Amino acid sequence: MRDVSIIGVGQLPVAEHWETSLRRLAFQAVQAALDDAGLPRERIEIVYVGNMLAERLSHQAHLGALLSDFIGVRGIEALRIEAADASGGAALRMGYLAVASGMVDVALVLGVEKVTDVVGSARLAAMSVTADADYETIQGATPAALAALLMARYMHEYELDLSAFAGFSVNAHANGALNPNAMYRNRIKAEKFPTAPVVSAPVNLFDAAPEGDGAAAILLAPTEAARDSVAKPVRIAGSAMATDTLAVHDRPEPLFLAAANISAGRAYDQAGARPTDIALFELHDSFTILAALALEACGFAEQGQGWKMAGNAISLTGRLPIATFGGLKARGHPFGATGIYQAVEVALQLRGEAGDNQVPNARIGMAQNLGGMGGTAVTHIFELVE
Amino acid sequence: MRDVSIIGVGQLPVAEHWETSLRRLAFQAVQAALDDAGLPRERIEIVYVGNMLAERLSHQAHLGALLSDFIGVRGIEALRIEAADASGGAALRMGYLAVASGMVDVALVLGVEKVTDVVGSARLAAMSVTADADYETIQGATPAALAALLMARYMHEYELDLSAFAGFSVNAHANGALNPNAMYRNRIKAEKFPTAPVVSAPVNLFDAAPEGDGAAAILLAPTEAARDSVAKPVRIAGSAMATDTLAVHDRPEPLFLAAANISAGRAYDQAGARPTDIALFELHDSFTILAALALEACGFAEQGQGWKMAGNAISLTGRLPIATFGGLKARGHPFGATGIYQAVEVALQLRGEAGDNQVPNARIGMAQNLGGMGGTAVTHIFELVE
Questions:
Q1: Residue A18, domain member (yes or no)
Q2: How does pLDDT run across B9-63, given as a tens digit for each residue?
Q3: How many whole angstroms separate alpha carbon B152 and alpha carbon B161?
């Protein structure tokens, strides 16, 4: 298998893009990635689209063909990858495989999601397709309700109160405030945390990431070719994916994110890296409890200790910066596009182009995209090509 | 890239499986494929699921994780592939890539669809997500209505009446009558064709394939390993995918299926084959007009001449047998699973295990799975390993 690198990245602000259609969001992100790579669109040989909800919310399947035509590469191989809100990470992994295998020399990986045109219970119902329909959703368990079960169990096991999680959101919003692409650019205070409106007790508004519209794109090429074509290729040093039960109640240890653990372990092995080598970690903080559990599953904290990192340790100058552009919580969570945003952000950090959000001297970064409550986990480790 | 072969196939009857959930359909098809291969499920390293409508009709996304758990391989890499009703063919292609690249030694490719629990306009609306939502569906153009436009144009251009298409359905039903897995096992007569109930003029009930519930599964392995493990491995000699505009009105020549043509051309090149080498062709006869156009696009007939093959030429003993187990028209069309059914059927033909549906002395077979009105086309060429 060939070594693969990111040669171009593009992203749009995560927002309520009521005035822009799904296909136009995709076009703009792809154009930005092409411009970044200095590559003509004709060089794209394959398109993998990460998307979760267009069938439900835009009445549109078949995004591979639709978007490859609209972005100006009509006719090429294209398909959609879906793994709940890990669709973007999964699409990146398939693009990696297509280039690593030698099948193509340039792959476009695209994440796009249009959520906010639909409001109220229809949106909530659509968002719930990530959980087990027959055993969870039918009982009324929304994603927030499932996160609440995990959070309550965690608080019980380790004798914590709500304030244990505040630091995750304070950090996310502090970083989001510096990022022009973030959905929420307001800072929040830990003191306000316990009185924030409840979404599904104990999950409150500060624990839950906002869904948003967005699109992000990545161009991949063999590292050898990338060295000649762009100034700062970012190689994919590790790529791995694993799954778990959808239904949280089927897991022997609900507080252990097995898929996150397995995929991170494989990515470390492939990259020849250890957790201490990781300079920053874009994790899947769709809920603060998942941030704590992901830190534990990926070897950054002992079980039951992840919450303790929710302070200086995770800031831009801390031991392990997370959510460096705001994370899902403040940058926003455009479900099927989130995994691509994470990878774009890590690439910008490693290229030293993160502006006010820059993590000093970042050489190796990691991104982990989860589906639902961790039913899917995709982990990538990135490294600047020297 | 390594040579890849089919080592196991499984399929369920296409039917109205009201009593069986989506996950149980998947389980049964996978178990049949494992039994066929004589392989323990622990050998499966990756699962690609082809599915089109579970998000709409079963309130269920995230099928990769859900089904890999339910079929007994919890934890492994798994995701869903979607390319409208070409999802099955696209999933097969990704499984081919995963094995060909050397990433895994055994891939499970699974197609599953549950359609018939939902009836009336809700089902019809869901089925329409394959077309362009902003420019076709919003005008009320269902798949049948779009096929009707193509058929009317074809009849006008070549001065034909309805009877030109009857032979496709007569053949499909004659073959379906012999197939225990077919949804419709009744023979139909050409004389009845002109008076069949109209779906969307000129498309009538005999022109349109019925949607159905179903599941089919394929196990893939490197050909070198397959020779030692199963009696009759069927190698994938060619695999290709291409796309076209979703909206039929955006195509310079609406009667030319460009994606079908491109993907077939690439598959021929890879296999070192010509149309005259193909012993049978499982094409995508969701509508009779698409059967005629696919024959033309793939080099079996000149443009405007495809309809002329709708007679003895396409029967089990004809020049180019098509729909040998009934095709989409009589075996039934379980959207995201259809591409897997097609490949299973070709494999059975090449193994000489097609029973009453056997095409004599079949050595090389082809399957082509279309999305919508040909917005996506996936073509595979198969050959018995000698």
A1: yes
A2: 999 999 999 999 999 999 999 999 999 999 999 999 999 999 999 999 999 999 9
A3: 9
Chosen for mutation from B52, B77, B104 (greatest number of chain A CBs closer than 10 Å) is B77
Cα distance between residue A179 and residue A144, in whole Å: 26
SS3 A89: helix
| Cβ under 8 Å to B: A residues 245-284 | 245-246, 250, 258-259, 262
A183-237: per-residue pLDDT in tens? 999 999 999 988 999 999 999 999 999 999 999 999 999 999 999 999 999 999 9
CA B238 from centroid of its chain's CA atoms: 16
- For residues A361 and A373, membership in a common domain is answered with yes
Q: In terms of domains, do B177 and B326 share one?
A: yes
Contact B53 A56 (CB under 8 A): no
The distance of A181 to chain B (nearest Cα, Å) reads 27
- What gap in Å lies between CA A330 and CA A209, rounded to an integer? 7
Interval B199-222: pLDDT, tens:
999 999 999 999 999 999 999 999
pLDDT in tens, B161-177: 999 999 999 999 999 99
**What value does the mean pLDDT take over residues B322-329?**
98
The stretches in chain A having pLDDT less than 50 are none
Number of domain units in chain B: 2
Domain ranges, residue A81: 4-119+212-234
CA-to-CA dists, residue A2 to A46, A235, A347, B42, B136, angstroms: 17, 11, 19, 28, 42
The verdict on A145 and A99 lying in the same domain is no
Residues in chain A within 8 Å Cβ distance of B101? 1, 97, 100-103
Amino acid residing at B380: H
Same domain for B195 and B294?
Answer: yes
Residue B22 lies in a domain: yes
A279 three-class SS: coil
Closest Cα in chain B to A56: B56
**CATH code, domain with A221:** 3.40.47.10
